[in-house]
């Protein structure tokens, strides 16, 4: 068994991260497996060098030790580009030239805009462009991202499902998140592409993450099937919430591991805070 903890070096770790790291480590070690550390650092506007060190310092202080050398996604951009090119060859992605404002305006003008778990979905504007129109705009240098054509993808894969050790077998709903972005305008990848490519490369057998990412797994199963990648077992665990019942965020500095340590809490006391 191999698991991983994959934080983004865009802020300090909080109690939710401590629980996620502990969950992944304990699962791997219960089977004599490996626990890996991966940095999801493709968000170049928010990543800071000091956060890599802060993450490793906090994990070490908590007594959560990883195996091997941490992986940085920014070292893997060529691999992600290869995956995008494979999807282009299969005809399951398309360039999208819409700005956020244009998308918002179209959604507001629609009667019954498509909805996802977290709000309105992309309405599919650029999916309807002809190949000639797409190429003309690309040749003109118009900024664009690449989106997954979920219906075209589902037609190629057929019905899919995945196994979640906490919630059981779940049938994939290709339309759940709509035509998600797979390669952004600013960097030719996305969370969705990077995570499935890295999980396969690192031979992650069990993906552990918060239940807020359950919807993303529907996309990931599509991508795994399209790219010929192995299907891991999933464990979508509970989230650590604040006093108001909201998911913890990095902006909540009062609950960061660093703040708790500076206030005199011991590693054992911090881990006890997130025990079931």
TrEMBL record:
GO terms for biological process: glutamyl-tRNA aminoacylation. InterPro entries: aa-tRNA-synth_I_CS (IPR001412), Glu/Gln-tRNA-synth (IPR000924), Glu/Gln-tRNA-synth_Ib_cat-dom (IPR020058), GluQ/Sye (IPR049940), Rossmann-like_a/b/a_fold (IPR014729). It comes from the Bacteria. Gene3D superfamilies: HUPs. GO terms for molecular function: ATP binding; glutamate-tRNA ligase activity. Keywords: Aminoacyl-tRNA synthetase, ATP-binding, Ligase, Metal-binding, Nucleotide-binding, Protein biosynthesis, Zinc. Pfam families: tRNA-synt_1c (PF00749). GO terms for cellular component: cytosol. Its EC number is 6.1.1.-. Residues 2-274 form the Glutamyl/glutaminyl-tRNA synthetase class Ib catalytic domain. Belongs to the class-I aminoacyl-tRNA synthetase family. PANTHER family: GLUTAMATE--TRNA LIGASE, GLUTAMYL-Q TRNA(ASP) SYNTHETASE. NCBIfam families: PRK05710.1-4. This is tRNA glutamyl-Q(34) synthetase GluQRS. The gene is gluQRS.
